[in-house]
Q: What sequence folds into this?
């Protein structure tokens, strides 16, 4: 945990240097990706204080290192003056936080799937002993999904409020909004199924992963496609 805290602090210093520059805030693709990975690491470290999810923290270290290397390899500039545009700053921060919370849900779903697979095959493992009970991990997954759903609802609402006029002239923005709305529907159905019918297991895993993939495409898909075309 101590090494994880040190790594997160060092990563934060790098992000501050890369993003907060003299001409504004450099919010290029790789800076935002590295920021998202950093925030996921912070959330997992906090969760590790209350739940046995250290395995996910260890898994995220190499991912953080890769995100740092990508920033160093592709030092691009997309400057935004967030001080003169508080609406844009709020929207960006809410987008990143929402994506990160639901990314944690995705990681928990992967962990739950792996644990469920080992238990079904009745295989004992030190890995399983380091994890909380299956029911506890499942409950934690739905708690994170619930928080992410609230944030996603706020994000879609504020996006429509601030950028409604742009939806019809920006194909990329319309695509992101539709993908995010589809993810919202999936999480809404998943949470409703849990509340009414007690959904669990594979329904929880697959529903969460599909929603997270849709959000990834909403936030990063268009930029990845543009990079591939150029």
A:
């Amino acid at each position: 945990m101590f090494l994880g805290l040190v790594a997160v602090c060092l990563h934060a210093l790098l992000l501050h240097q890369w993003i907060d520059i003299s001409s504004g805030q450099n919010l290029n693709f790789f800076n935002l990706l590295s920021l998202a990975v950093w925030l996921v690491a912070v959330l997992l470290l906090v969760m590790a204080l209350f739940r046995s999810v250290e395995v996910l923290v260890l898994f995220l270290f190499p991912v953080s290192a890769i995100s740092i290397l990508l920033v160093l390899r592709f030092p691009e500039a997309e400057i935004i003056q967030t001080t003169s545009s508080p609406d844009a700053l709020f929207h960006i921060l809410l987008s990143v936080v929402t994506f990160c919370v639901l990314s944690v849900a995705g990681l928990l779903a992967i962990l739950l799937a792996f644990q469920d697979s080992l238990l079904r095959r009745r295989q004992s493992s030190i890995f399983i002993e380091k994890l909380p009970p299956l029911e506890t991990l499942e409950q934690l997954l739905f708690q994170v999904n619930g928080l992410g759903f609230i944030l996603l609802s706020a994000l879609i609402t504020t996006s429509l409020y601030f950028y409604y006029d742009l939806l019809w002239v920006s194909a990329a923005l319309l695509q992101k909004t539709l993908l995010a709305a589809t993810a919202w529907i999936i999480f809404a159905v998943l949470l409703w199924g849990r509340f009414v019918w007690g959904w669990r297991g594979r329904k929880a895993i697959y529903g969460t992963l599909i929603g997270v993939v849709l959000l990834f495409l909403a936030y990063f898909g268009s930029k990845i496609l543009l990079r591939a075309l150029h």
Q: What stands out?
A: The mean pLDDT is 83. The longest helix spans residues 86-120. The two ends are 41 Å apart (CA to CA).
